[in-house]
Amino acid sequence: MQTNRFLGDTVGRTVIKLLVISVLLGMVMSVFNIAPFDVLYGIRDFFVRLWESGFAALGRFGDWLILGASIVIPVFILIRVLNYRRS
């Protein structure tokens, strides 16, 4: 019973679902000529480039966060105040 709750379904059905998804993903990766090591190397290269760039990418992310929050937070507060008045 614990296994079914952990997997979200019976063991047999979960194995079949995983097999089908694996075959479909393998076909897609084959079509695009992607090998599993290409994915691993891509992840490694991402972190190497991030390290070499001095974390400039994270700075841009922070800029985007502040820019978006300057609009989202006031709108959220305004909506909450207007909904509070109706209640």
UniProtKB/TrEMBL annotation:
InterPro entries: DUF6460 (IPR045594). Residues 50-85 form the DUF6460 domain. The chain crosses the membrane at residues 20-44, 64-82. Pfam families: DUF6460. Keywords: Membrane, Transmembrane, Transmembrane helix. This is DUF6460 domain-containing protein. It comes from Ahrensia kielensis.
